[in-house]
Amino acid sequence: MASPNFIENLELQISEIELLDSMFPGDGEFCLDDPSVLSDVQTFVDKSAESTGVADQGISGNSASGKGGTGAIRQLSFSIKISINGHHNGIPNIDLDLQCCLPLDYPNVLPELNVQSNVLSRQQYRILNDDLMEHIESLDRGELCITEAVQWLQENASCYLKTAEVPSQGNVKEQSKKKQQPSSFTRLWIHSHHIYSRSKREDIFAWSKERGLTGFSLPGKPGIICVEGSQGDVDEIWHKLRRLNWKKLTSKHREDFALDADDTELFSTNFSRLRHFSDFQEINFAVRGSRDYHMDLGQFFQYLEKHNCADAFKILLGVDGRVSQKDTS
């Protein structure tokens, strides 16, 4: 059966969500990514309470499975729209979108937080998120901290908005040209112990798409991510991924190609030729093992071969790749 500490963590998460829901009652202010997850967690907690005192008895039904009866419990994730009053700093009022994902061991571990706003420059976006996490990391473990994050943003976000770099009309075209013509092409291969979280998977896909990166994300165990594109965009997504909570996340291999941006036509041609992938997508193969979601690595190797990067298989996984027998029969 699940440990008392685990159940207590879930109860605290439920209580914090109820508090946030009451703090942000307006339409669209507080939104659960999947309301059924909260219902499942509440059911799990209720059944655990009913089974208290029954030695060596697991939770029955579909609310949990696997080690300790917690295998099917999914992480709670939600977003909060926070209105920032900027008049005292000489800026308009704006809304920030605080995206939250609660690991099952939260509040004993840090939550995954990400603040988004279309009025922040990329640099200010990074600084704001870094400073927010630095503040959260300074709090005592075991304390609920989403409401603290909201309060910190309400008190401090306007300072970041005031100093955000907003391009003037005179240099918009120049900055746009620089953005379209990066100085180098980069391909990054990332290995994770696992990728299960729905919110992580959605973030990986959305962040890659919005920056025009190509590549793929392979969820399961292990989890693999490949992103390719301009060096600045690749570095940005790697920075954002590292801010999330992972059991283990490693940059296994990086490929950098310097490009001459003076010749626009040649630059564009070379940039396109360096790509192994035509777009970014989440790939899935046959699952081996119903509990740990192991992907069919033979099919993964075949996928890499198809995109002319089979040598990455050994770099990522430490073994030579082989095509699945069922694919050759």
UniProtKB/TrEMBL annotation:
Domain of life: Eukaryota
Record-linked InterPro entries: Phi-like (IPR017359), Prp3_C (IPR010541), RWD_dom (IPR006575), RWDD2A-B_C (IPR059181), UBQ-conjugating_enzyme/RWD (IPR016135)
Pfam short name (any one): RWD
TM segment ranges: none
Taxonomic lineage: Eukaryota, Metazoa, Echinodermata, Eleutherozoa, Echinozoa
Domain RWD: 15-160
CDD domains recorded: RWD_RWDD2, RWDD2_C
Protein name listed in UniProt: RWD domain-containing protein
SMART domains referenced in this protein's UniProt entry, alphabetically: RWD
